[in-house]
Amino acid sequence: QVHLVESGGGMVQAGGSLRLSCAPSGRTFSRYGMGWFRQAPGKEREFVATISWSGSSTLYADSVKGRFIISRDSAKNTVYLQMNSLKPEDTATYYCAASRRGSFSRLSGYDYWGQGTQVTVSS
After folding, report:
1. Is the pLDDT score of 70 beyond 90?
2. CA-CA-CA-CA torsion sign (107, 115, 21, 102)
3. How much is the average pLDDT of 1-7?
4. pLDDT for the residue 51
5. 42 vs 28, 38, 92, 97, 104, CA distance in Å?
6. Less crowded by CB within 10 Å, the N or C end of the chain?
7. What distances in angstroms separate CA 39 from CA 90, 112, 119, one per listed residue?
């Protein structure tokens, strides 16, 4: 069983930056595709970004392309989401997810989920 723990959320003003981290407990996830999703109040959970197990392939939602960067550090067994130029509409709970089968933009592609970390962007 893989447990994912997100950290790095918080409150920031529009235009600011935050870096989210996700680390698993229980095992290494070097062969897992990893993704970030978010869910705002009253809305469905949506794809944000994903990275392949090797780190060579990434994919972003159009809404965050050019502002967010997903990366992974295998030595630290951690995946990151660098969020720049944050907007109020980025306010959501952000979830990290791991997939044994690859990297996907759909929720159903993931096997393990974290509990989420809150990001609030004020205008």
Report:
1. yes
2. negative
3. 86
4. 96
5. 34, 12, 10, 21, 24
6. N
7. 9, 16, 10
